[in-house]
Design goal:
The complex is a heterodimer. By secondary structure, chain A is an alpha+beta fold. Chain B is built from four helices and no strands. The longest helix of chain B is centred in the last third of the chain and has 33 residues. Classes of the chains: A alpha+beta, B mainly alpha. At the A-B interface, loops of A face helix 2 and helix 4 of B.
């Protein structure tokens, strides 16, 4: 014989997972033109400079993630890469392109402000023309995958390190969801390898055999681990549930940024 | 007599040529002029690592180790930046190798 309060608790526990999808709290989305913008200032203040603004949406039109996060060795975590002016001037990091020849460099004093503005919205006036690209619900409100697939953007996938394979590994994985009522998440390798190198995710973020990837849970992803290293910061946000949980029937509604 | 001298001279020339060629060695055995070329060649393989055999992966890891010694002799900034990248490439290759070895062991086990 179960007492009434105990029965109630039991019922709540049983029902909790089904409603869990709507219980995650995500930070309010920034305006589309600010999504994926960073301030990089590991040593700037010490050198009397403002932090440098970096906009993913500006650079993504010209280069895939692989170029910067694999070839040029920028860590995924902002301000953890040991970027120095000396390294830039020696052609590493930003200096691989910002060398004063291909793009503005580190020689002219008037060019410093073009990055070292300390302003997260630097360059946002260049965003409006991007509304021509396929639409997405969240983030920059641009479906970058579709833009790439449709040839609306043609970012370079290499500077000097040529990928060994054309298109890379393309198997699609289905990861079981932890909650009842939420469908499994698809991980299409093919879409990721169009942007990234295998080495960007493996073996540090994901161990290759999914059973070896411990802690792959939504709560940890929201905290910026696993998929959350990119999704929620620069790639489409986690609140866009159906992009991964493709057959999810009840999709919670989250606060959307301004309309396009 | 003249014939013998000629034969000896020809033999000396041929031996000299052979020694020169042996000293130069096959082109593939020479170290690349620039370590960056080797770095780009080795790290460029990561996106195809799943398709490599155990032998190919073992060879690539050995190339990474050899390359690490060469990069270790560079100036500090270059050393720090490129050794880190090289380690990441090596770690992926080593992980794929380990997965393949585990796969081979499991495939070799008798069924239930």
């Amino acid at each position: 014989m179960i007492r009434r309060p105990a029965l109630l608790v039991l019922l709540l526990l049983l029902l909790a997972p089904a409603g869990a999808a709507g219980n995650f709290t995500f930070p309010d989305p920034p305006p589309p033109e600010e999504y994926g913008n960073l301030l990089i200032g590991r040593t700037s203040a010490g050198n009397g400079m403002k932090p440098a603004t970096f906009s993913h949406w500006i650079h993504r039109q010209k280069y895939t993630c692989r170029v910067c996060h694999f070839e040029l060795q920028f860590n995924f975590e902002a301000n953890s890469t040991e970027i120095t002016e000396a390294a830039n001037r020696a052609g590493m990091f930003c200096g691989a392109c910002h060398d004063g020849k291909q793009l503005f460099g580190h020689e002219k004093p008037e060019d410093c402000q073009r990055c070292h503005s300390g302003n997260l919205r630097q360059g946002s006036e260049k965003f409006a023309p991007l509304w021509r690209l396929p639409e997405a619900r969240y983030g920059n409100r641009i479906d970058w995958d579709a833009a790439l697939a449709d040839g609306k953007i043609t970012p370079a996938h290499q500077l000097t390190i040529e990928p060994a394979s054309e298109g890379g590994f393309s198997q699609t994985l289905l990861l079981e969801a932890e909650w009842a009522g939420v469908s499994g998440a698809v991980v299409p390798h093919g879409r990721h390898t169009k942007w990234l190198d295998c080495n960007d995710c493996h073996p540090y973020i994901f161990n290759i055999k999914k059973k070896f990837t411990e802690g792959l849970k939504m709560a940890n992803i929201i905290q910026g681990q696993f998929c959350g290293v990119c999704h929620g910061k620069v790639a489409f946000p986690l609140m866009d549930c159906k992009r991964c949980h493709t057959t999810m029937t009840t999709v919670p509604s989250y606060k959307e940024p301004v309309s396009r | 007599m003249k014939g013998t001298r000629r034969r000896v001279a020809s033999f000396v020339c041929a031996a000299g040529l052979l020694l020169t060629l042996l000293a130069a060695g096959p082109a593939g055995a020479q170290e690349p002029v620039d370590w960056r070329v080797e770095f780009e060649a080795v790290c460029g393989t990561t996106d195809a690592s799943m398709s490599f055999t155990v032998e190919q992966l073992t060879d690539l890891i050995a190339r990474c180790d050899k390359l690490a010694e060469r990069i270790g002799a560079e100036e500090e900034t270059v050393r720090r930046v490129y050794l880190r990248r090289l380690k990441m490439c090596r770690d992926l290759l080593a992980f794929v190798l380990e997965s393949k070895k585990i796969g081979q062991t499991e495939a070799g086990k008798p069924g239930p």
